[in-house]
Write a structure and sequence with these properties.
Length: 376
């Protein structure tokens, strides 16, 4: 149980990380699609990506409301791909790769509904020995944990207990909601509230519109819970439901449509869509090199320069969003325009073959900060 306001703010920061961590894989898959092809897949991935931006904004509003400070420009906020997200006992990697059956399988695992069967099942032990990420196969030392978190290699650890992680992203948010209720109950007993943040730092609906729901201004317990519930509903589907309370299809079931070749419609049961056919052409995709890094581009100076330019554009994009979440909400409108520049920059990479790379194309690396070895 979250016991302090500092712990709650740490959880919410990790929530920002989790929401953003899905964007680079989704965007890489989206822009790997050939122009004029795969309109169904393009629509599904684009809608999900826009709604992830909504989720990012909702979590930032909750963090601001409880007196925290969103920071999307901190080293490690953008993961070092491949990264690992909560998925129960079978930890899995999330890669940057083109649209493919493997990418779709990963997207389904990210968004999979996974409500725990019991209180004990909400957490699963971290198998550090299998991951091979620590010096001796045991839980990381404080220094190793700080390095892992700074690199964004593993996301979704239980704050303060690196031996445990949540069984799903939905359970992660359930823990935050429990923490909000507990801390607010304690505060009210002495005539106080945990919602002490500056109201001017709230992003309100006029600054962000998503077809999948509006931004919720967080002013207290009820709106905080509503915001986080919307995040969980639109992602995994609350309690496995296909449609949320605004009749939008949860992300898991949006992606499942691509796997099953049919759209869901109202009245369908999970796993049995009965709507119109949906067509996927797995061949109409640029062969982006998976998990590409700047070091892979050294033989192509022009592509390397374009990749560095993309990273600078993406850093500027996150900087604008960060300023929007810290008292300048009008900059969120500017960030939307920045996304178009990001799209064009991604296309310049994804459509270019690499020299001597067996038919693979370039792609965005999302390396926003130099490694410690490269830092002067």
């Amino acid at each position: 149980m979250i016991q302090t306001i500092e712990e709650l703010r740490e959880y919410l920061y990790k929530g920002l990380q989790l929401e953003h961590a899905t964007l680079p894989p989704y965007l890489t898959a989206l822009y790997s699609l050939h122009p004029g092809k795969n309109s169904d897949a393009r629509h599904v991935i684009r809608v999900v990506a826009v709604e992830e931006m909504l989720h990012l904004t909702l979590v930032a509003n909750v963090l601001n409301a409880v007196g925290g400070t969103p920071n999307l420009t901190k080293r490690g906020f953008v993961p070092n791909y491949p990264t690992r997200l909560p998925a129960g006992p079978d930890d899995f990697e999330v890669h940057l790769r083109p649209f493919s059956p493997e990418a779709l399988a990963t997207f389904l695992r990210i968004e999979k509904p996974a409500q725990a069967a019991s209180e004990e099942d909400r957490f699963v032990p971290m198998d550090w020995a299998t991951l091979g990420l620590t010096s001796n196969g045991s839980a990381p030392s404080p220094d190793e944990l700080a390095e892992l978190e700074e690199s964004g290699t593993v996301l979704g650890l239980v704050p303060g207990d690196p031996t445990q992680r949540f069984s799903s992203i939905g359970e992660f948010y359930e823990e935050i909601i429990r923490g909000i209720n507990h801390l607010e109950d304690q505060a009210r007993k002495v005539g106080k509230t945990i919602f002490t943040g500056n109201p001017a730092h709230q992003v309100t609906p006029e600054y962000f519109y998503s077809g999948g729901g509006d931004v919720i201004k967080v002013t207290g317990r009820d709106t905080a819970v509503a915001a986080l519930t919307l995040v969980a509903e639109q992602g995994e589907g609350l309690h496995g439901a296909i449609f949320d309370n605004q009749d939008e299809i949860a992300h898991y079931y949006r992606f499942q449509q691509l796997e099953m070749g049919k759209y869901y419609q109202k009245g369908d049961e999970p796993g049995d869509p009965s709507g119109p056919d949906l067509h996927v052409d797995w061949s109409a995709v640029y062969p982006v090199k998976p998990d590409i890094k700047l070091k892979h581009l050294e033989g192509d100076p022009e592509i390397l320069a374009a990749a560095k330019e993309f990273n600078q554009s993406y850093a500027a994009f996150l900087t604008d969003i960060n300023l929007a979440y810290n008292g300048q909400p009008d900059l969120l409108l500017k960030a939307v325009w920045e996304m178009f520049r990001i799209r064009d920059s991604m296309n310049r990479l994804i459509r270019n073959p690499l020299t001597g790379q067996s038919g693979e194309n370039a792609g965005p690396t999302f390396e926003l900060w130099p490694s410690k070895e490269e830092t002067p």
